[in-house]
């Protein structure tokens, strides 16, 4: 019977031990990375969702809208800011104000059920015309877009 040193010194045994050591090192590295990133738990298999009867028969509530007065006040404020933007202001600042103003116009139009195409029009002259048309339609619907104190 060969001795332990003879068996341990043979190349197939050394190759096997090296492969086992590499596999254990990879497993330990994976375990440590999961520990550092907070992924200790193994992913569980999810059970298929079965149909469950609804708990209540009430329809889902509509998303709450802001008060029309608040939308109108924001529209007047942004309209003043857009009028006061200096020529030295950045284009990004003006574009941001214009996008916020467009969002408020759409919100007011949806609150008053005024048809609009502001979202579909491309930026440029066509969008500016739709913006003016929508502002006029909102004014005709009763929304005060001008400064109420500036009448006279």
Distance between the terminal alpha carbons, to the nearest Å?
116 Å
What is the count of β-strands?
0
Could you estimate the helical fraction of the residues in percent? 55-70%
Question: Per the principal axes of the C-alpha atoms, what is the gross shape?
Answer: elongated
Q: How many helical elements?
A: 5
Structural class: mainly alpha
As residue ranges, the low-confidence spans are none
One letter per element, helices H and strands E, the order comes to HHHHH
Strand content: under 5%
Look at the structure and give the mean pLDDT.
83
Provide the gyration radius in Å.
Answer: 34 Å
Major beta sheet, specifics? none
Characterization of this structure:
This protein has 152 residues and is mainly alpha-helical. It is built from five helices and no strands. The longest helix has 27 residues, at 11-37. It is elongated and about 110 Å long. The N and C termini lie far apart (116 Å).
What labels would you give this structure?
152 residues, mainly alpha, single chain
Please render the helix and strand layout as text:
Layout: H1 4-8, H2 11-37, H3 68-84, H4 91-111, H5 125-140
